[in-house]
Design goal:
Length: about 210
């Protein structure tokens, strides 16, 4: 902490801030016990968000603690959210890249169908695993839960829609396209609504209508 920022605060305010600092250290220590790093970041988000909301909801607490320290807490919340996104979604979105799909030397039919099939299979498997796991995780605060879902959708849905638009025809012209293009954009949009409800979901997502 930068203790110079605490000059002029009352002993009670300093005491409260010190309690919050110790609480944060304890939470960070507990988060390290989670084997799943995404869940560790979600644990921090849930708890820091709770602290921030309690401070914001009490004019007396907010006045004592001050907006500067509240901004620091909000920054920690944003950082935890960013860390969650990286831990969970970078590897999923990596499946939706163009690199490695094009066969060198061909201009008219420069897409490797075998590589494309594997890419769709990898995406399906990864998303299904994340969906199965994170639907069971709970974010009690409805506002935070909705913000997380929106954040996921803003990254996932445009990437999948674009990938599907570029490569759908290459899969649908081959055998058993339904084994590779298992989900529509709408299926994924609906699946994201299951996240953080704290309830188990079916192992398989609802398939798109053929």
């Amino acid at each position: 902490m930068d203790f110079s920022e605490l000059e002029g605060k009352t002993p009670l305010a300093l005491h409260l801030i010190w309690i919050i600092v110790i609480l944060q250290f304890n939470l960070e220590g507990k988060s390290k016990h989670y084997k799943d790093t995404s869940l560790a970041h979600l644990f921090m988000m849930n708890n820091v968000h709770y602290i921030v909301q309690k401070i914001k909801g009490s004019p007396e607490l907010r006045e004592m603690i001050g907006d500067d320290y509240l901004k620091k807490m909000t920054g920690k919340l944003r950082q935890a959210a960013t860390n969650y996104q990286r831990a969970t979604w970078v590897k999923v979105l990596y499946c939706l890249r163009d690199e490695g799909l094009h066969v060198s030397g061909g201009f008219s039919s420069g897409v490797s169908k075998s590589a494309l099939r594997e890419r769709f299979k990898s995406f399906n498997a990864m998303f299904e695993e994340v969906h199965r796991t994170q639907a069971v995780w709970l974010v009690p605060d409805s506002q935070l839960r909705e913000e997380l879902r929106i954040s996921i959708s803003e990254k996932l849905i445009p990437a999948y829609r674009s990938f599907l638009g570029r490569f759908r025809s290459h899969i649908e012209s081959g055998k058993h396209p339904e084994n590779y293009i298992k989900y529509s954009v709408e299926d994924l949009e609906n699946a994201v609504l299951d996240f953080f409800e704290g309830c188990p979901v079916s192992q398989h997502l609802r398939r798109r209508s053929q």
